[in-house]
Amino acid sequence: MDRLDVPYYLASKECLENVEITHVFKNYFYTIGLYYGDGATIRIGNKTYELTRGSLLTIGPGVSCQWLKTNFPLNDTLLFYDDIFVNNFSNSFFYSLEFFCPDEQSVIQLSDKQFEEMQQLFQTLRMVVDKPDVLCGILYSILIITQKHFWRLHRGNKIELSDKEHTAVKFRELVAKNFANHKDVAFYSQQLNISSKYLSELLVDQTGMSAKKWIEFHVMQEAKYLLSFKDQSVKEVAFQLGYTDTSHFSRAFRNYDGQLPTEFKNAVCNLSPSLN
Fold first, then answer.
1. d(C-alpha 132, C-alpha 4), whole Å
2. What is the CATH architecture assignment of 8-154?
3. What's the whole-model pTM score?
4. pLDDT of 217-273, one tens digit each?
5. CB of 81 within 8 A of CB of 30?
6. What are the residue ranges spanned by the domains of the chain?
7. R_g (Cα) of the chain, nearest Å
C-alpha cells in the first residue's frame, strides 16, 4: 500500500459497512478504532479478542491482523503516521503510548459513559477531517483519554512514564516496524542515540529482557503467526521475515522454540483448521 498523501485517514463505520476483509493483513499505520457492532472476533498478533459494542482497538504498525468469522465490522477507524505529531506535539508524548506496542493489550472495553465520550470525539474528527491542524488536537485528546483508560486497566492508574520507560516503549515500537529487516541491536541503539550496551541494560531493568531477546521475541512471534496458516510455506515465512536462507530461519526457530518450524506448523495447523 502506498503512503498516504496526508499523515492520516479517517474511515467511518458507514464506508466500512460492506468491506470484506477476512484474510490476514499487515497493519502499516497507527490505528485506533471504535467498535459499534454486537459482536466480532479479531486476531491481533498472537492474541484473539472478542469485541462488543464499545470496544476500543489500538494497533501499532508492523502487526499482523485478521478478522475471524466476520467481515470488516462496524467501527470508526483512524489510520495515521507519527508524522502527524512532528510539528504539533512532543515526540516524547507520542512514544509514551504503550498501547501501540505489539506485545501489549490491543483492545480496551469502554463503559457506556466512556463509549459515549469517545463517540463524540470521533464525530468531531469527521467534522474537521479536512483541517489537519485541528484534527491533531482532537486526536491528541483521544490518545490522552485512551492512555488513561489503558493505565487504569493495566498499570494501576499510573500517571506518567519515566524517561527510561519512554525509551523502552520507543524501542518496542521501532522493533515492531523494523524487525524483518533489522535484527541487529546496533540499528535500534543508533535510532535512539544511545549505546547498544546501555539500551540492553535499560531494557533488562525495565522489562526483564535484553534488546536481542526483544528482537528475537518479535521475529518468532510473527513466525508462529504466519506458520499457523496452511497456505504459507516455511520458505515463504522465512522470506517474509527477512531470511534469505531457509536453513538459517529453521535453526533460529529451533533455538528459540525447541522444534523445527515444520514441526510447529504441522502441530498448529492440525489443531486450528479454522484459521486456514
1. 13
2. Sandwich (2.60)
3. 0.65
4. 888 888 887 887 778 899 999 999 999 999 999 999 999 888 999 998 887 766 544
5. yes
6. 8-154, 163-275
7. 19
Q: Give dist(CA 183, CA 149) in Å, integer.
A: 33
CATH code for the domain defined by 163-275: 1.10.10.60
**pLDDT for position 88:** 63
Q: What distance, in Å, lies between the first and last C-alpha atoms of the chain?
A: 24
pLDDT digits 0-9 by tens, 105-136 = 899 999 999 999 999 999 998 898 888 778 88
pLDDT at 129: 82
Sequence-distant (≥ 6) Cβ neighbours of residue 114 within 8 angstroms:
54, 145, 149
Residue count (the chain): 276
For residue 169 the three cell numbers come to: 516503549
Spatial separation of the C-alpha atoms in residues 122 and 114, rounded to whole Å? 12
Q: Taking phi first (over 0 means left), then psi (-120 to 50 degrees means alpha), and beta for anything else, what does residue 10 get?
A: beta
Instruction: For residues 115 and 235, give the distance between their C-alpha atoms in angstroms, rounded to a whole number.
Output: 44
